[in-house]
Design a protein that fits this description.
The complex is a heterodimer of chains A (243) and B (502). With 243 residues, chain A is of the alpha/beta class. Chain A is built from nine helices and ten strands. In chain A, the strands form two sheets. Chain A has a six-stranded mixed beta sheet, with helices on both faces. Chain B is mostly helical. Chain B has two domains: 243 residues, MetI-like (MetI-like fold, Orthogonal Bundle); 201 residues, MetI-like fold (Orthogonal Bundle), CATH 1.10.3720.10. Chain B contains 21 helices and no strands. In chain B, helix 6 packs across helix 8 and helix 19 packs antiparallel against helix 21. The radius of gyration of chain B is 24 Å and the shape is globular. Classes of the chains: A alpha/beta (243), B mainly alpha (502). At the A-B interface, helix 2, strand 6, helix 4, helix 5 and helix 6 of A face helix 7, helix 8 and helix 11 of B. Bound molecules: adenosine-5'-triphosphate and magnesium ion. Adenosine-5'-triphosphate binds next to strand 2 and helix 1 of chain A.
């Protein structure tokens, strides 16, 4: 369903961040992307929803060619692709539920969104998404009063509200402690199993990747050096990726 | 050495100060009998002053929000446009409010309207700077995270940037308002409405009893407003409504998003009405304004000797006030900080004193000094010194109060007295903070000293008002340019030094 062909990204005409990366991801896969710092993991994810525009290559989601979409088409396709950041990026002064409602924006007409008209249905979906991550009782609290793990759960709820086909997560647990990291990873697993959402996740912790992902992609200096099942991720391969 | 030189430049003379003492004492004696029957008229004028300050702050903040969205470089629709606009605004920001008022009075004639506009400009520029700094501090990922749900750039503004800005707008309003209420009291000196008008009149008619009434009431008003603004801010910070159900929350939100634009529109209509702007007056004003701007642009460079003379004097006044203020602030802070002062009562008393010192705009203080030392740079320098002492003591004593307990105790356990601990341990430790505060004061003093001349207290302001009154716009153009360059240079220098001490 997701297909990336010969992707190349050069920042500011000098930094080569990705070179000739191609991959195909089927529906319902749980893909972990690993690689050392600066290897291009974030860049790859950001390309998939065009937060970064590749200098070369093609990206397809189902039958859409993302690079050829108008800005309106792009906004519509971004609705199908949820994105989760390491640093949560909630709106601090807004309440938790208002943050989650942002996930419903792409279903609104410009008039509705300008005047902030969300229907009862939107609210109920937001509430349901929050109960999915077990944060219903924090609904009316300000986002800046939550802990890191709670913030990330709100971000997941917001993304679920989009009803995406794919979720991209850029090191979502890198600033959390181990127990919380596992809790968050469990939410991804459940979204993957129960809602059949395809997941691409950047992880710097290989153990986590081995535990939760079914397929691993290894990047090194912008090139793809490994693509295979978790079982094939031997120590030799790891040495090659991180050396 | 330096101090002696500067003292000489501002015509400092202990003799004159001592000789002036009986005059000042006499002034205070006469002021000790305020004319209470005068209170009615004063009250009316104070109300007008407060009105000007509130309306102009509101106008400025409301205008600044959309402009900040346009000019912040990380979200601006056009980078070049925002760079140009920001440079223009930076230039405007160096022009003190009283100068704006003086120029606007010659465009719109005497009354509160030019004062309103002048303070609105100041409020706009101040809040624009605060908003812009905030928006530019939003990191790219925060914007990206809203973009990645499929939001358009308008929706990113509405849902990602605006919510935080609205919360901020309240505190920005109060910061601007507290500045404007002080500026509004002196607008009358150039004929731009408010209490300053009758203050100036009473001063010229030597009605010190009336003056005492005004100053007392003004003091009370400013204290009241500071207290009120503190309370409102605290209330808003802690306010959190009880939500019963999702439905209830949704209705509240809808109500809020309908109400806010309505309040906004109501305010705009209210402000416009209160000014009774007529199209005619605007048209005349606009015609005159554009003529004046056109003439200012034809800068008269041959006037430079007076410019340098004035700027030099202003600079000297500012440096004098900063040095003197800094010296006294070091001493006073020890007594004002409750964790260092020899007694609770001393600290409270000291805090009261510095509050009096910093409540009055220096330009009013200078008027009082006229009585003692006569008009001229000395009056201005002394007035500004008092103000600087007040503000700096307040800020630095707060630094001392926020210092961790163990810093103080680690010196005290060596057996040192509190004063020794301050002198040898605490002051050196917080020296960088002190210098940084001092430099901020220098920046503010240079702006203040530029307007002291309006009432004849020395510096570039004298030349500025004279030429504004005589409608020598080409010369005004040169003076403004000079003031602006001086202020920008000082700001740069102080910024550089601040980074150095850190
Ligand atoms: N916005 C940008 N502008 C310029 N260069 C960039 C930008 N973002 C990333 N780079 C460069 O591109 C390369 C790949 O960066 P990327 O962030 O994709 O790596 P990463 O694998 O996510 O690293 P990390 O594990 O540290 O997050 C790096 O050399 C980085 O310096
Ligand atoms: Mg990264």
């Amino acid at each position: 369903m997701l297909k990336v062909e010969n992707l190349q990204v050069i920042y500011d005409n000098k930094t080569l961040a990705l070179e000739d990366v191609s991959l195909t991801v089927g529906e319902g896969e749980f893909v972990g992307i690993i690689g050392s710092s600066g290897s291009g993991k974030s860049t790859l994810l950001k390309c998939i929803n065009l937060l970064v525009r590749p200098t070369k290559g093609k990206i397809y989601l189902d039958h859409w060619d993302l690079m050829s979409l108008s800005s309106k088409g792009l906004r519509e396709i971004r609705r199908e692709i949820g994105f989760i950041f390491q640093d949560y990026n909630l709106i601090d002064r807004s309440t938790v539920i208002d943050n989650v409602l942002i996930g419903r924006l792409s279903y609104k007409t410009p008039f509705q969104s300008l005047f902030r008209i969300f229907s009862q249905d939107d609210y109920e979906r937001a509430q349901k998404a929050l109960s999915y991550v077990a944060l219903e009782e924090k609904m009316y609290e300000r986002a800046d009063q939550l802990s890191g793990g709670q913030k990330q759960r709100v971000a997941i709820a917001k993304t679920l509200c989009q009803r995406p086909k794919v979720m991209l997560a850029d090191e979502p647990v890198a600033s959390l402690d181990r127990a919380t990291a596992h809790l968050i990873m469990e939410y991804f697993r459940r979204a993957n199993m129960k809602k059949n959402i395809t997941i691409l996740i950047n992880l710097h912790d290989v153990e986590l990747a081995k535990k939760y992902c079914s397929r691993i992609i290894g990047l090194k200096k912008g090139k793809m050096v490994f693509d295979g099942k978790v079982g094939d991720l031997t120590d030799d391969v790891l040495k090659r990726i991180y050396a | 050495m330096l101090l002696i030189f500067i003292g000489y430049r501002v015509e400092f003379s202990l003799g004159r100060m001592l000789a002036g003492l009986p005059g000042m004492a006499d002034l205070f004696r006469r002021m000790a009998h305020p004319n209470f029957s005068y209170m009615g008229e004063v009250f009316e004028k104070i109300a007008e002053t407060v009105e000007i300050a509130i309306l102009s702050s509101l106008t400025g903040v409301m205008l600044a929000i959309p402009v900040a969205l346009l000019t912040s470089e990380n979200i601006s629709p056009n980078l070049y446009l925002s760079k140009i606009l920001n440079a223009v605004f930076a230039f405007f920001r160096t022009i003190p409010s009283l100068i704006w008022a003086a120029i606007l009075v010659s465009i719109f004639s005497i009354g509160k309207f030019p004062g309103m506009i002048a303070l609105s400009i100041i409020a706009f520029l101040m809040s624009l700077k605060l908003f812009r700094e905030y928006i530019e501090s939003i990191n790219e990922n925060q914007l990206n995270s809203t973009r990645s749900v499929g939001a358009s750039s308008l929706e990113v503004l509405r849902y990602c940037v605006l919510p935080n800005m609205m919360g901020m707008a309240v505190s920005v309003f109060f910061i601007v308002f507290e500045t404007n209420i002080r500026s509004a009291t002196v607008l009358g000196l150039v004929g731009a409405g408010g209490i300053g008008q009758i203050m100036w009149r009473d001063l010229n008619h030597l009605r010190y009893d009336n003056l005492a009434t005004i100053i007392l009431m003004l003091f009370a008003t400013i204290l009241l407003i500071d207290a009120l603004s503190f309370m409102v801010r605290k209330f808003l910070q802690e306010y959190s409504p009880k939500i019963r159900s999702l439905e209830h929350y949704r209705k509240r939100k809808i109500l809020k998003s309908m109400l806010l634009p309505l309040i906004f529109a109501g305010l705009v209509v209210g402000i416009i009405n209160s000014l009774n702007i007529t199209l005619e007056r605007m048209a005349v004003g606009f015609r005159q304004g554009s003529q004046i701007v056109f003439r200012m642009l034809q800068v008269d460079f041959s006037y430079y000797p007076r410019l340098f003379e004035g700027i030099f004097e202003s600079l000297m006044i500012a440096v004098f006030a900063t040095v003197v203020g800094g010296f006294f602030a070091i001493i006073f802070s020890f007594f004002a900080a409750y964790n260092l002062a020899p007694g609770k009562l001393v600290s409270v008393g000291m805090k009261g004193l510095i509050n009096v010192m910093r409540t009055f705009p220096p330009i009013i203080m200078a008027i009082i000094f006229f009585r003692g030392v006569g008009p001229g740079p000395l009056a201005g320098a002394l007035a500004l010194s008092i103000y600087t002492t007040g503000v700096l003591t307040k800020m630095y004593s707060e630094v001392l109060e926020n210092m961790p307990e163990n810093v103080r105790d680690s010196v005290l356990v060596t057996g040192a007295t509190r004063l020794e601990a301050y002198r040898h341990g605490i002051f050196p430790q917080t020296f960088a903070n002190f210098v940084s505060l001092l430099l901020y004061r220098m920046e503010s003093n240079i702006r203040n000293s530029a307007i002291l001349g309006i009432i004849g207290a020395g510096g570039i302001g004298t030349a500025l008002t004279m030429n504004i009154n005589w409608r020598n716009w080409e010369r005004v153009g040169l003076l403004l340019l000079g003031v602006s360059i001086m202020i920008i240079l000082i700001d740069r220098l102080s910024n550089y030094l601040r980074h150095k001490v850190k």
